[in-house]
Design a protein that fits this description.
5% helix, single chain, globular, 40% strand, 1 helix, mainly beta, 85 residues
């Protein structure tokens, strides 16, 4: 089961998620709505329309990822131990 996320949260986006090849830190946009995930069988998993690439403090770095599901995200702190899953 994927972890529930909220707008404004900083997460690690896995490789190839959101139409962007590399994994990166991203912030779920505060004004963003979520939709049901179409990738996994978890009925509670949500897809977020827009994530902005950011640094550890949440400062934007210029990249955008679109349509990233919670099953394609890790906690930012988890990334260090999990690599680019």
């Amino acid at each position: 089961m994927s972890k529930r996320r909220s707008a404004g949260e900083i997460v690690w986006k896995k490789d190839n998620a959101g139409f962007v090849g590399v994994g990166s830190l991203c912030q779920i946009q505060p004004d963003d709505d979520s939709l049901p995930c179409v990738l996994c069988k978890d009925p509670d998993c949500r897809e977020w329309a827009t994530l902005w690439a950011c640094d550890e403090s949440g400062n934007p770095t210029g990249g955008i990822a679109c349509h990233v599901s919670e099953c394609e995200m890790l906690d930012a702190a988890e990334k260090a131990g999990a690599g680019n899953v």
